[in-house]
Amino acid sequence: MTSVALSSPVFFLLLAGLIGSVVLLYLLRPPVLNRLMSSNLIWRRILGSSRAINERWRWWLSLLLATLIAICLLLATFRPMDNGQMNDRSLIIFDNAPSMGALTRDGMSRFNVAKDSVIRHLNSLSKDMQVMLVDTQRQVTTPSFGSISQALEILDSLSVGSSLDPLVPAQVATIDASRKFIYTDGVMIGGVPEDFTSVSAFQPVPNVGITRLSFAAVPGNTQQRQAFIEIANGGAEPTVVEIALTQTESRLITRQVELAPYEKLTQIFDASAFESGPVKASVVSTVDRFKADDVAFGYITAKRQVRVGFVSDDVDSKMLTLLDLMPRVVLTSLTNADYQGLESEELQFDILVFDRVSVDRKPVIPSIFFGVNSANWLGASVSSIRSSQLSVERNTAHPILRNISMTDLLIESGVLFAPAVGVEALLTSEDEAILAIAVPGAVKSVLLGFDLDKSNLAFLADFPIFLSNSITWLVDEPPILNATPGTIKLPSDITKVYRIDGVDVPLWFADGNSYFHTRETGLFTGFSSNGPLRVSVSQLDRRFSDINRSNLPIFESSKNFVAPGLNGYSFSFLVGALTLILLMVDWYLYHRRVTQ
After folding, report:
1. Are strands 306-311 and 329-334 parallel, antiparallel or unpaired?
2. Quick one: how far is CA 30 from the chain centroid?
3. Roughly how many angstroms between the first and final C-alpha of the chain, as a whole number?
4. pTM, whole model, 2 decimals?
5. Beta bridge partner(s), residue 415
6. Mean pLDDT score of the chain, rounded to an integer?
7. CATH assignment of 306-475, given 3.40.50.880, 3.40.50.1820, 3.10.560.10, 1.20.140.10?
8. Which pLDDT band, with edges at 50, 70 and 90, does 46 fall under?
9. Which CATH number fits domain 208-290: 1.10.10.10, 2.60.40.10, 3.40.50.2000, 3.50.50.60?
10. Model confidence pLDDT, tens digit, residues 309-368
11. Closest Cα to residue 69, out of 107, 21, 111?
């Protein structure tokens, strides 16, 4: 049974009217019953059997019992509102931010401590209480008032989220409810409105986490690679941790360091022995109570060595000399006849560079073409350059032409490319004729309609940069995409996403982008027609590690909680039970001649 809420003036007016009605009923005296007694003996016997109780007090006791019974019936049916608010509505905000995953001294997470507190709170409420449960990670998409059992089901479905920014709807603060609570550790949630009661789940604990992981080649020595790992101590005590950088069982680097309270420390590792591919960084501490920031994933996208096959019939080619001087390039020279005699599986190269060689088949590995005569395999038609006085414009958005001007480029002769689907223009002339193109995809290509002998390209200061950028674009993977657990946005051309262990991850498309969701850290690979995209999902933000930045009082122990006792029964049920007891008392006293 659910009582009806009334405004306080109406309720008390109704209560006063009810009490007045009961009093008026008791003031109505029944007519006197005249009795004729034939003997004084009968009078003595009647007087002897009567109780010596004052008639006035018997009347007042009867009136009191009748009034209490009437009030209980009224309270079972109606309930007053407090300051215009519903007394039967309770609002609970539950903080399930990442910091709530930290373990307390009892071994329970802050999340479970707060969850148990909410369960005890709900069990202590009247069963007719309406409850709205709102979480800070918006896992409850459409919160609304419901029964206590519904609130318990919603609470059971919640989990620790990954967002660093609480997402509580603004209108929650203005909801009409007589009781408002927020269960939190106070780390990531902002200010709490004054009409909310904060219930702390905070307990300071030791924590060390990784806040940065990156890789870079040593300037001037491309064979040497370094790894940069930044770690932070989020606790108030000095901590000794072991840092591990792992690629395979044989490629493992470890180091032990000591961190002062709240110290941030950067460590540099020599990762020259690591090949291109996934790398995992981890920190291990015997006292760490928050594991979510102990592991980070990275990916070395640049190859340490690039095997280049140079195909040309010109043994004195300027290109051959320049390639041989480039860092990380392992060069092999081939004639056109040598190349034509090789099967696809015999091409043990990362890149092929063609200098004034006609190719009638699509390359199976990334390639650069200088002095193209035809591109039938590409589906793009070509035409001869008619003027040597060309003003060259470059596609500055393409990574191949990054930091390159090409303003002094002179071309004596060559071919122009017609626009084609799936082809990106690199160099164009003033009449929008295309001089050089890039072909993206799983097997990329760069085609120039002129060679080194018919242009001054080899004498430009930008040419080595152009060649280096071309090699990087052809063989190195694009920069890794760093993300935090949650919903991750990818380019629209991504059609498949796999976890590092090969598990297919569900993918959906919206607003011209691809999306996938994960609650766990790890390395993922997205595939498209333009090649793979590596996605590192790690909690590298310093705020993940600062799990002790709270002003709330310290939660001591879950063992100190006491069972709610009689709490939890419906208010209407309790009032109804009291009414029944009063009726039984009134019935007993009346039949014992105590009341009138």
Report:
1. parallel
2. 77
3. 33
4. 0.69
5. 384
6. 83
7. 3.40.50.880
8. low
9. 2.60.40.10
10. 999 988 778 888 888 888 888 999 998 888 888 888 888 899 999 988 888 778 889 999
11. 21
